[in-house]
Every structure is written in C-alpha cells, then in structure tokens.
Amino acid sequence: MYIEVAEVATSNVYKGGHRQRYFKFSHQFHLRSDLCMWADRIQVMDLKLQMNVPKGGQEIEEEGQPVSPVSQCFKSPLFSLCVHVIFELQESVTDIPKYMNAVAESIMSTNPLYSCIMKKDDRGSWRWKKTKVNTDDITFVAELPPGQESYDAWVDDYISKLSLTPLDQSRPLWEIHFLNYKTSKAAATMVIKLHHSLGDGVSFMATLFSMARRVDNPEFPPTFPTAHKHRVKPSWPGMAVANFFQKLWYMMLLVWYSVVDLIRTTLRLMDWLDDSQLPIRGPPGVEYTPVALSSATFLLEDIKQIKNSVGGTVNDVITGIIFYGIQRYLQIHLSAVGEHSLQDAYEKRLEQPKDTVIKQIKNSRLTAICMMNMRPLAGLQNIEEMLKPKGKVPWGNRVGFLCLLVPMMGKLENPLEFLKRTKRVIDRNKISLATYINYRLGKWLARKKGPQALSKCLYNTIVHTTMVVSNMIGPMEKIAMAGNPVNNFTFFVSGVPQALGVFIVSYMGSVVLQVHAHKDYVDAHMLCKCFVEASKEMKNYTLNPNPIEDGNSESV
C-alpha cells in the first residue's frame, strides 16, 4: 500500500508588509511552443458563448448584474470565504509572466464575472460591474530567499499566509500566485485564489479544468469518474407487498429524521446546542489566526478494498478514515495534557489511554459540516452547460451543508467496526430532507430578510460545530495546465470560523486529504499521520481481523 504524508515545517518567508510578499519579474523569456498553441486555442473561442452569465444567459450590462443574495452572504462582515486551488507542476517555467497571463486570460474567457468587480449602485445594491482588467494586478510571482536546500517549508508558509490576506476589493475577486521553486512534490507551484462570491467549488473546478488538456492526448479534455448505475433487482412473488411496507417504513424514517435534524439546526441558531470544547475546536475569530497546511495521499485501490469489506462507498471509507484519525489525534492530544509533550504522547499512541481520556472522548459531541452540491446533476459538468440560461447545472453558489455527528467510541479497538458506525451515520443522514429544506429556507431568508440575515444564520451554525469537510472529484488522467503537466492538485477554503478543515480531492487514481488547520489548536502534520495510520489499520483488518501491531507507519 502506497501512502504518503506531505510534512513541512513553518518558517518566516516575508519581510515588511503584506504586499511586499510579491515580486513581479520584468525580464523577457522564451516560452515553449505548446503554450503558444494553447493560448491560440483560447482566442478562437466563441465570443458569444464567452458573454453568457449564470443568470438569464444575458450579457453583463453597463449598469452591472445584481449580485445574488447568497454570493453577498459569502462576502459579509461576519465572514468572507475564499477558495484556494493549488497546482503542483511537473516543470519549471522560464517565461513566467507570459505563462501567468495565458492562464489569466483563459480564466477570464470562460465567464465575464471574472472581469467584474463588486460595487454598490446609487440605491445601495451590490452589482457585478465590468472593469478593464490589467493582468499584472491579479498575477503575482513569489520571491523567496535563494540557495535553500528545500523550499517545501517556504512554499507551504507562503500559501498559509496567502490564505489570511484579503483580496483587493478594487480589482476582480481572484488572483494567481506562482512559485517557481522546486519542492519534493513539484518543480513549480501555482495557486489560484478565488472569492466564494464568484461561485462554488463546482463552478471553479469547471472553469479550471476547461483549460486543462490530457497529457497523453492534448487534443482531448480530461475525463471524470461517473456514478455507477444501480443493478435491477430480480422480482419474486410477494415483492409488491414487501416494497409497499419498505417504502412506508422509509417514509416514516424520512419524516422523523428530517424533523430531528431541523430541530437541531434551530437549537444551534438559538445557541442552545453546541459541540464539546475539544482541543481541535477554536473560539470565534479563529479564522484570523495563523494556519498550517499538510496533506495525506492514499491509493484509490486501497480505499476500494476497504469499501468492499464493509459494503459501503468510497465516500464512506474516506469519511471513516477522517473521523477515526481525528479520534486517534484526540487520544494523543488529551494524553499529553499535563504529563507529556505532544510528540511524546504520539510515540506512546499504541498504549491504552487512561480511562479519563477514553471517558472524555466518548462523552463528547463533535459535529462535522459536510458541504454538498445542490444541483440536480452530481459531479463536474461542462462549463458551457453551466452557463446556459435555465440549465440543469447552473453557475453560482449552489451549495448546502450536512451536519454529521461523529461517532465517538473512546476505545479504538476495531477500525472496521468504527467504519461501520460511520457508515450508519451517513446512511441515516442521506434519508433526512433537512439539507434540502435548509437550503431552500436559506435562499428564502436571503431574499426576504437580506444577505446579512443569512450570513448570521450560517455563522451561528458553523461556530457551534467543530470542523468542515468538503470534497471534489478530479480528472482520471494526468492533465496539463498551459502545456505544463500537473503532478497533483489540492484545494482548501479560508475564512471559515473553525480551527480545522479537511478537503478531499481525487486525481489519477489517488485520494488526497488536504488539512487546513490553525496552528494554535491543531497540529496539521500529526493529524495527517493519524489519517495514514487509520487507513493502514483499516486495510490490515480487511486482511486479518486480529492484526499484530508493529508500531511502524509509512510516512515521509
């Protein structure tokens, strides 16, 4: 089993103010011919299609397109969310300005919103107004100290600090940052930062992957996994009666679970229901504190092997790995309080924790907010389909949330049993209509009471939970951005008022867990080690229900 943990330390990168972090090269370099060909393809795109916008399929007029209430909600005084997409490139770039300009022009060609700023009109309403975009204002090249043996820590620190830097409101709400420094994972790194008011993860990924081409066949766009069709069940005498009672029972559960979940949501909004104060939970305002990034990579084949042993789905297994790893981390952290350092407690992680630690974890409440795509069709869609007027997969913020109550077992003796409990929690939430109802109520509230009312409700819900989980499906083949092959890509969301976020992507048969954690509350690198060990334990139990622990873990 190939499992890799990307571990980096943090250190100081910058001197002076925020904007001094960026350095623009003025030298001219020669660019490969494949980049030129790629840029030419962009210029011959259908101009009429380029002017489509998510609302009504109309061009953005001079007075501006109204900003949707949900988009205004994500850019409010309470919280401002940004999506960061990180591309680890296989080759370094010689002509960096030309490369970045080509990427920027391609992004702007997909949707006119990328060439707009958010501005209030005479009546005080927010509108998207077209502006002349100078790519030098939205593209930045990092200047890091020369002669370093490794740039892993520097690149990690740059991206971490970038997540805390607000976007310039006088410019389009997105930026491209390029770090032409070799790390253990890439020859260069490109970070695209986009404000959530422009769209959701599905919208952004559709934009970025519309620029990508397969490395094995550049003439074709990348392909993505599709959902498997359910098998047709064989019929048998009396099946109609059985189906009737089965559907009746299902409807009873649907009503009951929906009512319970809606009551829980109401209690959170009224500050009557809250998660336990565990070490991985931060106070309000934690989103403004320093962060650290780390990642763990797993083979999709190993995930499927575990999936087959419990009869679940890939998402069930990944969620189980995250929840199991978090409880392993909590055992380590709580065992370290008052007696050991965190590292010493990690070295003794295979020892049975004290009864007080087990009891504290078992009696705790830990809720994870899982972001969901609320479009009728699942998965990534073609960018042209998303921009069609009244399409089934419209552009914009079509995102809901599912509150998963993490099963807290205290003793972690059988990882597969924990995985089965996690699967039962997920299956129970799939029956509930609370996510759909909350999504509709949120849109109604934003229209009737304004975006600030929706922002307050979302903020109160988030601060009473512990962590956020989001996932995105990536291409099945290796892709190239502007002719430069991509070794890997990840994403995370900043501005969430929580100390921990885990963001999942699949790419080329691998699954990557990207951890975005605030340093004062979560050790991101140790948490990724716990994810690795959780996966190893689950796989070992699929091969042998009673494995002998050797204390070793595969990590780098």
What would your notes on this structure say?
By secondary structure, this protein is of the alpha+beta class. It folds into two domains: 3-214, Chloramphenicol acetyltransferase-like domain (Chloramphenicol Acetyltransferase), CATH 3.30.559; 239-474 and 497-543, Chloramphenicol Acetyltransferase (2-Layer Sandwich), CATH 3.30.559. Helices cover 38% and strands 19% of the residues. The chain has 17 helices and 17 strands. It has a seven-stranded mixed sheet with strand order 1-10-17-16-13-11-12, sandwiched between helices. Strand 14 and strand 15 form a beta hairpin. Helix 1 packs parallel to helix 4, helix 9 (300-310) packs across helix 10 (314-336) and helix 10 (314-336) packs across helix 14 (415-431). The protein starts with a strand and ends in a 13-residue tail after the last helix.
